[in-house]
Amino acid sequence: xxxxxxxxxxxxxxxxxxxxxxxxxxxxxxxxxxxxxxxxxxxxxxxxxxxxxxxxxxxxxxxxxxxxxxxxxxxxxxxxxxxxxxxxxxxxxxxxxxxxxxxxxxxxxxxxxxxxxxxxxxxxxxxxxxxxxxxxxxxxxxxxxxxxxxxxxxxxxxxxxxxxxxxxxxxxxxxxxxxxxxxxxxxxxxxxxxxxxxxxxxxxxxxxxxxxxxxxxxxxxxxxxxxxxxxxxxxxxxxxxxxxxxxxxxxxxxxxxxxxxxxxxxxxxxxxxxxxxxxxxxxxxxxxxxxxxxxxxxxxxxxxxxxxxxxxxxxxxxxxxxxxxxxxxxxxxxxxxxxxxxxxxxxxxxxxxxxxxxxxxxxxxxxxxxxxxxxxxx
Length: 378
Hints:
The protein has helices at 7-23, 26-34, 41-49, 68-81, 87-101, 104-116, 227-262, 274-302, 311-334, 345-357, 362-377; strands spanning 121-124, 140-144, 147-158, 165-171, 182-188, 194-200, 206-220, 264-265, 268-269. The protein is of the alpha+beta class. The model has no long low-confidence stretch (mean pLDDT 95).
């Protein structure tokens, strides 16, 4: 399995890196996080002008038809910058949902606008009672004549306030935890009966709790047999999160190495301390393991014949554990400054914590992997 970047991937990663180096320093990012929107429409436009919002959208729909391996280097750059813009919500999760489930007319109407960044989507699947169980959906989709209406609650919906439309996972039949009866539904901005409570996640990402009280919705595909599309969205999201996590780990590691090389204590550079050098070596091992796992996660989407069942679960599990370990070591090696709001290293840990909780934390991935292995071996 070859994880080396192509020349085109390197060029795109460099272009994104230069853009963010100019417009997304840590201080600029703090100002963006403190703004009313919590993200920068100006930066979003610049990213879209590079074609990034359409990177993995089919060429026929105005995108570039890229693969997860093409998206990975971009997301690593986003992770190093701690990007707050709605890329994951719209260009990864929302776009994948449309491509997997929507009919031809809906794809033709929406995907070109998503690819250009004109339309922003948000993905609403998580619920308070689910506790990382992907099939636990209590939100109801009820037929009302020729229409469908949603009733229920969704939590931690990232960039819901910015979204022109929501892609909502709802149950049209069956009980929570059942595979059959799940579907994807499109809800337009400002739909009657939709209530939103906005807040920020621990890493400053804008999010919301959504309450649906008879909200009119349009089904994407079969409203009772949407699990395959939902699973495809989750897989794309996990692979993207793995790449984002690697970028955050790279940022925390680079800050720590610079600190050890320049900070003196008792007349000696910290990096001359043998114990601290051992900790730094352990951090590098964690980073290299995570890079390999991010490549494996991309391969699950791009080259499924080359991977084993459960590899996506393994990737997120291992990155979750190594990411937390690396960032905790980074903070400890910085000492008191690592705990301050004004210094970036603690923000990398916050990003890793949010990534770990999205689509199931390390413990839930381990439990699902154990169930999969038990089912295979009886």
